[in-house]
Design brief:
The protein has about 350 residues and is of the alpha+beta class. The chain folds into 2 domains: about 170 residues, no CATH class; about 150 residues, no CATH class. A 4-stranded mixed β-sheet has the order 1-8-7-4. It has a 4-stranded mixed β-sheet with strand order 11-14-15-16, with helices on both faces. It is globular, with a radius of gyration of 22 Å. The two termini are about 40 Å apart.
């Protein structure tokens, strides 16, 4: 029997260490496009299940619509009534398969709200995975916005494909953390979706430093968190990790050296941006958590992008406040996302 893990279990697999060697993705898709000889019972699952999945967990299975089995206390079934596009499945063991990142995104559209789907898509297209116990883990991207959109073209007409595509159109490749994702969504989503509408930004785009700037600062390249390249505008999220309590577990000398090194790096980055003619704004966690401060930051960026100003009618501001209230809460503690 073939065990086809559903989107929930598949996402958990992609968030684990299993698909990676170091930071590199070491999993490859298989050519299977039909859910043939599929598992129907817990016994079928246990006969084929890899050691990665705990036998005590609820197991979700992909099955064709012809399957008549009903959900039980140990099994849930997600019925798929169409032929899967090529590369929809990854074989992770003998007769055991997980969904591709693109298939996960599509199937999750039936379970997640628009903003939750955008958050998930940014993670799948980013350089990190969220874990409930260990925070986040960094790795190379497992898909791209273009790949997700191409997949959705192949399932156009299926239920929830339109919703999935709407969310996918607002994704951006290259996020390195949930907070970068939050900052991108808040600043760059259209106003009608709760953002400030500062479109055209890229995440972690490495820029080659001009020879003149490099001679002044010694940096040959620089990677802003968020950048509008043509307008020469960048936003940097200032992580508080180097101020974190974990630093107090080391010696005072090590702690002092770490902070001094960070200050030196930050200074070199600022001088490099100045030499390249970039306007750069820094966003701290406290600033991001304040709606007034985020509005000020967005207004400043808008002015440097040459826009006439932010639309600030009451209806749009209410949507922005609602999205901000949701985004400022740590990812694992968020409640219901705002409706659109």
């Amino acid at each position: 029997m073939n065990v086809f893990h559903s989107e929930g279990d598949s996402l958990a697999w992609w968030r684990s260490d299993a698909p990676y060697f170091g930071r590199e993705v070491c999993a490859s898709p298989c050519p299977l496009t039909e859910l043939s000889e599929y598992a129907r019972s817990l016994r079928d699952v246990n006969d084929s299940r890899s050691s990665w999945f705990s036998s005590g967990d609820m197991t979700g299975l992909l099955v064709p619509t012809s399957c008549t089995n009903r959900n039980s206390s140990h099994l849930t079934f997600h019925k798929v009534g169409f032929e899967l596009p090529a590369s929809s499945l990854y074989e992770i063991g003998k007769s055991e398969f997980v969904c591709s990142p693109e298939l996960i995104f599509f199937l999750m559209a039936s379970k997640r709200s628009f903003h939750e789907l955008v958050c998930l898509g940014m993670e799948l297209c980013g350089c990190y995975s969220c874990r409930s116990d260990d925070g986040i883990v960094e790795h190379d991207p497992i898909t791209t916005k273009a790949d997700i959109l191409a997949f959705l073209n192949e399932v156009a007409g299926q239920r929830f494909a339109r919703k999935a595509r709407h969310a996918a159109e607002h994704l951006c490749d290259g996020s390195r953390s949930p907070r970068e994702t939050d900052l991108y969504m808040m600043l760059c989503l259209p106003s009608k979706l709760g953002g400030f509408g500062l479109s055209g930004a890229e995440l972690n785009r490495t820029l080659t430093v001009s020879p003149r700037a490099a001679s002044q600062t010694g940096m040959e390249s620089i990677t802003p968190d968020l950048s509008w390249i043509k307008a020469k505008v960048a936003a940097e999220y200032e992580s508080s990790e180097w101020h974190s309590p974990s630093l107090w577990d080391v010696s005072e000398l090590s702690r002092t050296m770490h902070i001094r090194n960070q200050i030196a790096v930050d200074s070199a980055r600022r001088r490099t941006y100045e030499a390249m003619g970039f306007f750069v704004i820094t966003v701290t966690n406290d600033e991001f958590n304040s709606f007034d401060e985020v509005t000020r930051i967005a207004t400043t960026i808008s002015r440097h992008l040459g826009k006439h100003g932010l639309r600030k009618d009451s209806r749009l501001m209410w949507r922005r406040q609602e999205l901000h209230e949701w985004l400022k809460v740590p990812l694992g503690s968020r409640g219901k996302a705002p409706t659109i």
